[in-house]
Amino acid sequence: MADRPTESQASALINANCVDFARRRIEPCTLFIERGVIVKKMDGRNCRIRSIPTVDLGGQYVIPGFIDGHTHLVPEGIGMQRLDLGRCRSLDKCFQKITANIGKSEFVFASSWDETTWRRGRVTELDRTALDRLSTTTPIIMRRVCGHCAVVNTAALRRIPDHWKIVDRKRGYLYENVALNLNEIFVPGEDMLVKAVRLATTKALRLGITSVHEISQPRYLRVLQKERNRLNVRFSVYLTEKHHEHAVQTGLRSGFGDDWIRFAGTKVFIDGSLGARTAALARPYAGSRMRGNILMPMSRLRRIVRSAEDCGVQLMIHSIGDRATEATLQVLKDNIARQNQLRHRLEHLELLSREAIDDLRRFNIIASMQPNFVRRWQHQGSLYEKVIGERYLGMNCFRSILESGVRVVFGSDCMPLGPLYGIEGAVLHPSSCGRLDTATAFRLYTEAGAYATFDETRKGKLQAGYLADLVVLDKNPLEEKNLTGLKINAVMVGGEFGYVGGTFAARKK
Q: How far apart are CA 289 and CA 432, in angstroms?
């Protein structure tokens, strides 16, 4: 990856079809760009332009760059260099891939297994003893796709310090904090981190993503800073909760930074995931008495909220289950003003009561949600039905939440990365409570995300004064029939094309 080109002095995109998702309109337009910013938008395709370079888009469709409201791009890039079990359709296939990699490095770190896609083998057959059959000397780590659960062999278990919580040493299962932070135990080298940034940002750009709300840690942030002049995706960074106190003591406030790397706030975990059966539910999981776990005492959350309010730091709070969300909202209601000036946000919110939706609206709390999960797991016979039964139909009710007056932001959580994938999930939602029209789904993955990081006057629209971050599509995105097979032909960030597809049709003049 070469250094990012200097933001262009002046150029124009002509013969474009500009899409306005808020007004549900498409208008022939010309965009004038200078120093990475749209300086003028003119109606009509064939404006006479002299003395500056132009790109003729030939009637292709232009939309604002996608803003992914919840990512782990650096871990995604690390995973791209390790063993990926995401395509394994049986437990035996997972074992075969792991066995083939034993001896190639100090340990085998395999990620993204998803038992709901296995045609053979059950998760009950996966434990420390099963992995010990593969090797008793090479540490083996198998982390589930959600990141909230991992299984290790005895050699790896010996590397897990005693202070880590929720470790089942008999069965080799790791949950929550230890599973999410395995890269602090099995540490990637500096070269791997640099390559991770380059791989993941390249992948994101090809998917039309120009900005991300990235959950991170200081070491990853330092690598982003090191790579700053090569970045082709903009980062709003949320540091995990254990770094909150140090961040505020050093004077960090939400918004510190620039258009490429900015400190956005603190990420807090309240519960786990549905796949790991650790999300905190009001009613038990299907076929079980378990209701999941609230991972943080509310007294601790209360102190963090008060600190964030005092120090000007936005909170991004992970809360999937309805029980977790109701407890979290009670703390927020008691400790923030109704206007929510810092724009605190709750992540995932997959199960919500009517009362919780009302509280989100009354306190102007952002609902950051993942339509990618809907397409992947929220259909008959898939993960969500298996873990919570018929309740799965009332999950991720984007439409009902929006109609209640709550601000909703879309993101992928890298499961998988890809706005178009998620948009199709929202448009084809299995329940009317969540099903959106295409214009709304696209708006939640573009314009809406800008509000969450106080960028609504800089990102998410094709208007004068906004950053020249945009995506060129081959078909009209407002027509639902075009969603399947919709192609990203080119992606511009800061006035420069960072990605151009093989079929991109444009003429430079």
A: 30
pLDDT per residue as tens digits for the range 147-162: 999 999 999 999 999 9
Output the six-digit token pair for 203: 């992948």
The full set of domains in the chain, from first to last, is 11-64+463-508 (2.30.40.10), 83-184 (3.10.310.70)
DSSP string for residues in 122-155: -GGG-SHHHHHTT-SSS-EEEEETTSSEEEE-HH
Give dist(CA 438, CA 478) in Å, integer: 6
DSSP sequence for 398-457: HHHHHHTT--EEE--TTTT--HHHHHHHHHT-SSTTT---HHHHHHHTTHHHHHHTT-TT
Distance CA 304, CA 462 (A): 37
How far does Cα 61 stand from its chain's mean position? 25
Which tokens is 267 given? 């990420």
pLDDT in tens, 8-49: 578 999 999 999 999 999 999 999 999 999 999 998 766 667
Contact 414, 84 (CB under 8 A): no
Distance separating alpha carbons of residues 215 and 356, to the nearest angstrom: 25
Contact between residue 272 and residue 175 where contact means Cβ atoms under 8 Å apart: yes
The span from the CA of 459 to the CA of 174, in Å, is 40
C-alpha Rg value of the chain to the nearest Å: 23
Q: Which two tokens stand for residue 339?
A: 């206007």
pTM (two decimals): 0.95
